[in-house]
Specification:
single chain, alpha/beta, TIM Barrel, eight-stranded parallel barrel, four-stranded antiparallel sheet, globular
């Protein structure tokens, strides 16, 4: 296991020097954030990030993420150019020492929450999701906290129109086509592709979501058994769908290249609040998940996922320093204890 920490590049308010001080941290998870989706990442920008990490004594072996262009998800003829660009970026990342790329295949909308600062009894605040509040929103005029509003109102309307009639089956076919095109490059350069489950793991605004749990992963790995085709095991996303996390961790341990470990507390059938990583803080048995990963032979990358804002910190929602550092310390302790159990 390699413990890592999400870092948003030179614009991040958290300096690498602080991240380096977290015990047992091997490196950071980062990306090139100023390149339009679908375009080739400039090698100079990749190497700049690599140098900054090297200078701080941290590895840069995981990228989260290289976004997949909507034309690829839609299966349009123009996808060929974007797939070629993706292949070029993967080769450049490999030359910089990257071993794993986390990505998702969610149409239009990435992760969605309805409140970024839900206040807990202890005064901390965190991300939360209320399904009734989300379904009341107008997808053509979306104003939602945390959503990257990359499109104007008219652009969003046009993009959604292009997805009309998109089925789960067709979207899955487009995912397989994409992976069939890039996995030979992964074989060539030694990069693992770790697909992130849909977050939350159900259809949104009439758009299909296909990587929502065990059935979706089974289908993907059956269709493409390539050793570089794997998953990002996100306890928050899979837990929101009330999946059996211990079973999934045991079943897919060899396919899990990257683990996002975070805690949620269910407050309704589809409603949840994110909490501190400690098992007793929420509804997910994080300790049992770590035991299952260790017993399954998991050897991939881990990062403490969304944390709370605590101790007066007003950080990027989900990505402040203090609570994620506490999460890393807690997870380090769990892994050490579980690994010693197996000796």
């Amino acid at each position: 296991m390699k413990m890592t920490f999400r870092w948003y590049g030179e614009g991040d308010s958290i300096p690498l020097a602080y991240i380096r001080q977290i015990p047992n941290l091997s490196g950071v998870v980062t990306a090139v954030y100023d390149t339009p989706v679908g375009e080739v990442w400039e090698e100079q920008k990749i190497l700049r990030l690599k140098q900054l990490c090297d200078d701080a004594g941290l590895e840069m072996q995981v990228i989260e993420s290289v976004p997949v262009h909507e034309d690829i998800k839609l299966g349009l003829p123009t996808r060929e150019r974007y797939i070629q660009n993706y292949q070029t970026t993967l080769r450049a990342l490999a030359r910089a020492g990257v071993k794993c790329v986390c990505y998702n295949f969610m149409p239009v909308f990435d992760w969605l929450r309805t409140n970024l600062k839900t206040v807990a009894k202890d005064g901390s605040n965190s991300l939360s999701y209320e399904h009734a509040a989300l379904i009341k929103l107008d997808k053509n005029d979306l104003h939602l906290p945390g959503w990257d509003e990359s499109y104007s109102k008219e652009q969003l309307k046009g993009l959604l129109a292009r997805y009309e009639g998109m089925t789960h089956e067709k979207l899955f076919e487009n995912l397989v086509y994409f992976l069939q095109s890039i996995l030979p490059v992964c074989d060539e350069v030694g990069i693992d592709m770790a697909i992130h489950p849909d977050d939350p793991p159900w259809d949104m605004f009439g758009l299909p979501r296909i990587i929502t749990g065990e059935a979706g992963f089974d289908r993907l790995f059956k269709a493409l058994p390539n050793a570089h085709n794997g998953m990002t095991f996100c306890t928050g996303s899979l837990g929101a769908g009330r999946g059996d996390l211990v079973h999934l961790a045991q079943k897919y341990a060899s396919r899990i290249f990257f683990a996002h470990l975070r805690q949620i507390r269910w407050v309704g059938e589809r409603d949840f609040v994110e909490a501190g990583h400690f098992t007793g803080a929420g509804s997910l048995d994080i300790a049992a998940v770590v035991r299952a990963l260790v017993r399954g032979g998991f050897k991939g990358y881990v990062r403490p996922d969304h944390g709370r804002n605590i101790w007066g910190e007003d950080g990027k929602p989900g990505y402040g320093l203090y609570d994620r550092a506490l999460g890393a310390a807690y997870l380090n302790g769990l892994f050490e204890a579980m690994e010693q159990e197996e000796v």
